[in-house]
Amino acid sequence: MFGFGGSSVSTPLLRVLTDVHPLYALGTPLPVAIPTAVAGLVGYHRRGLVRYRIAGFTILGGLPGVVVGALLTKYIPASWLMIITGAALLGIGLRSALTAGGVAMAEIPIKPTSADLIAFLIGLPAGLFAGVLANGGGPVLVPMYLMFLNLPMLEAVATSLATVVVLSIPGAALHWWLGHVDPQLVLFLTIGVIPASLLGSKLARKLGDVRLKRVFGWAMVLFGGYFLWREL
Hints:
The two termini are 29 Å apart. By secondary structure, the chain is mainly α. The protein contains 10 helices and no strands. Helices cover 79% and strands 0% of the residues.
């Protein structure tokens, strides 16, 4: 529904509902993000909502950051990573909820060559965020696509999913190598997320841009705030 692979939400949910070790909660959902994003992407692709060129340049900028970010998790305390996850969800949610229905930042359409550069620059922090917090970068990508490329919400969501599919692959491999992935949890999460992601993409298309952005924002505020409070 919201344009990411679900790992940003799965990490706090695993901590809240199962109390697994923070590093397992961090790394295990990332391999699941790949089939989740692919399943969610199908409906958007059929309706021509995916901006593949923007996704491609975002991936070019994001791949190095994913590798660096994943390796940094060896040196950052797990409790810090959980707090950063909660704070990121809360901040992103507030930004999206409070600006839903607002006027786009730029009145003049962005030229294709400028859009390519902006997409590449968006990929740099999104990749680092994805690597450190073991997600596909979607929670960062969607707001940045809205703010800096003025994409409609549905196009931002669709393009983010296309990017998440690729950015999740090196991150998942590295976290698996680092021992942060529980294969049994991966199996059961995957069984649950594929039908749910198909339903989520269908619901997003029915909600429309403004309502989807508002729902996305307040959902992240509530969940991020609760998770941050719990971890602190």
